[in-house]
């Protein structure tokens, strides 16, 4: 079973973007280890119902909230719902996010840039802030808590046409590192995972078209794209006590794709 070697100290985890892709795999795996899970969906209740239904069918505990992670009120409502249903939230996974647009900078509206920033950078800021506020004082007497931010190898490997996404993920790397430093005295660990190409709806065309999938896999040294369940394994480890001494780092999970930067000149 996924993550079956792990123990968890927290009993409630918030997983943003938990209705789809990597977040969904995290939610399913963590619920399978006995954690109560609060997921977000983005105006897609059917997608969330499917995940919640599967968790409940397996005997797990889960709720879903419609939340824009870039909206302060939505983030407050998400955490209030999780705390009311399951008690203090001591684990957080930030997986919600928007992909790059492929738009050149001269053609990119501020509105568009802002939408990606709000999902991919402001969102983790708001959820991390609310997570930390929720663990102040009496609700966290022994200290502790763990956050995993789902970044991307493109936090450090830029692409033309991705000034929106790559800027947001670059900022997320610094958010992760800075919060790790700030929160270490409180025993709250903050780490990131940086996936390469993972087969989720964010890569829908590769899911749909085996030829495209094979073509893109040839660019990956490991010879294939990753699966969301593999990212969930890593996230689960980083959330667990086994990773106690790991904080302030981002772990790549990319089949060595990011190492191809600056080759073949
Ligand atoms: N799939 C990949 O190849 C890949 C690679 C690197 C990084 N990532 C990162 O992994 C994370 C998860 O992506 P995924 O592959 O599971 O894609 P996905 O599209 O399946 O999941 C992302 C989810 O985030 C939601 N979302 C978008 N904007 C939101 C907002 N403002 N508020 C709340 N939810 C919002 C989407 O509706 C979707 O449900 C993202 O942060 C993405 O950048 C993915």
Overview of this protein structure:
- The chain is of the alpha/beta class.
- It has a single domain, classed as NAD(P)-binding Rossmann-like Domain (Rossmann fold, 3-Layer(aba) Sandwich).
- Helices cover 42% and strands 14% of the residues.
- A seven-stranded parallel β-sheet has the order 3-2-1-4-5-6-7, sandwiched between helices.
- α1 links the parallel β1 and β2.
- It starts with 11 loop residues before the first strand and ends in a 12-residue tail after the last strand.
- Bound molecules: nicotinamide-adenine-dinucleotide.
Structural class: alpha/beta
Radius of gyration: 18 Å
* CATH topology heading: Rossmann fold
Distance separating the two termini = 44 Å
Task: State the CATH class.
Answer: Alpha Beta
Strand order of the largest sheet: 3-2-1-4-5-6-7
Family: Belongs to the short-chain dehydrogenases/reductases (SDR) family.
Keywords: Oxidoreductase
Pfam families: adh_short_C2
InterPro entries: NAD(P)-bd_dom_sf, SDR_fam
List the helices and strands and how they pair.
Layout: E1 12-16, H1 21-32, E2 36-41, H2 45-57, E3 62-66, H3 72-86, E4 91-94, H4 110-134, E5 145-150, H5 163-183, E6 188-195, H6 204-208, H7 210-217, H8 228-239, E7 250-253
Parallel strand pairs: 1-2, 1-4, 2-3, 4-5, 5-6, 6-7
Helix pairs in contact: 1-8, 3-4, 4-5
The structure holds nicotinamide-adenine-dinucleotide.
Nicotinamide-adenine-dinucleotide is lined by residues 17, 19-23, 40, 42, 67-70, 95-98, 118-119, 123, 150, 152, 195, 197-198, 200-203.
Keywords: Oxidoreductase
Organism: Novosphingobium mathurense
Pfam families: adh_short_C2
